[in-house]
Amino acid sequence: MLRPRTAPRWLLLALVAVLGLMLAVGAACGDDEEDGGEATPTTAAEATPTEGAAGEIPELDVTAADFSFDAPASIAGGLTRISFTNSSQLEDHQAQLLRLNEGVTFEDFTAALPEGEAAIIPLVTGAGGPGAGPGLTNENVLDLQAGTYALICLIPSPTDGIPHAAKGMVQPLEVTAPAAEQPEPPAADLTVGLSDFAFDAPDTLPAGETTFDVVNSGPQPHEMAVVQLAEGFTVDDLLELFSAPPDPNAPPPEGPPPFSLLGLVAVMSQGVSGQTTIDLAAGTYAMLCFVTDPDTGAPHAALGMAKEITVQ
Known about the structure:
This protein has helices at residues 10-18, 21-34, 106-112, 117-120, 235-243, and strands spanning 59-65, 68-70, 74-76, 78-86, 93-94, 96-100, 124-126, 131-132, 137-144, 147-152, 170-176, 190-195, 198-200, 204-205, 208-218, 222-229, 259-268, 273-280, 283-288, 306-311. The protein is mainly beta. The protein starts with 9 loop residues before the first helix and ends with a strand. Mean pLDDT is 83; it is low at 1-48.
């Protein structure tokens, strides 16, 4: 999921990602302060979801850049199609939505970021969210409850390893009460179940545009990142790279990373579901979950949530 486009540091950054997304944000916030800088949330554009015809799902456009979101400050709740565009030419981005639990303010959330994952998880409910590599698009359909959310990107930069949230990619999003009449959710091509620690999904899929209905039965938070693997590269190869400690004296790897982020449903708490649509060309893919297991400190991918899929 966290594939940087700059080759010399792609392996190091992937390892940073696997060691825990939230924890990386906390550490990065501390690093940013040492450099004399302070991450300031981007001012959100005033906008509303695009209203479709009766019965259609309202569409919300979110554009990610280096390092900001172009997104509304407030939207109506209910079923929402989040159309995500990564306008960067160099970096992966995501639009993770974290709903702040009752009584938690956005200031409470940002104050907890430097404390790491253990301090953040009790404050939020993971609601999903799209993401994609440079120049790509991805969409989620999410049923958003009313409340205050953090719109955040937890992916580290390939130039310095600092997660994008520490560079300004974290801002509040107010979700108001949904309309009384809600549209029907779109039909999905297949349902992917997330559990501790596995993906319930087929081993093969047909090529073409595919809508995944992703359901987290937990009990831990989970995500589904879909990456395309380079020819001849396997999930086992990927996990071996993730498990190998970085060698600062080793020469930088040559060529592009052997995997690329096509789309995701970002971290969801137990009982939360979301949809994503991805156009799959023939080839080899992987479903991955990078959330950290609190008992072992291992990423879920290392505990079984790394599934190889053939598209033909």
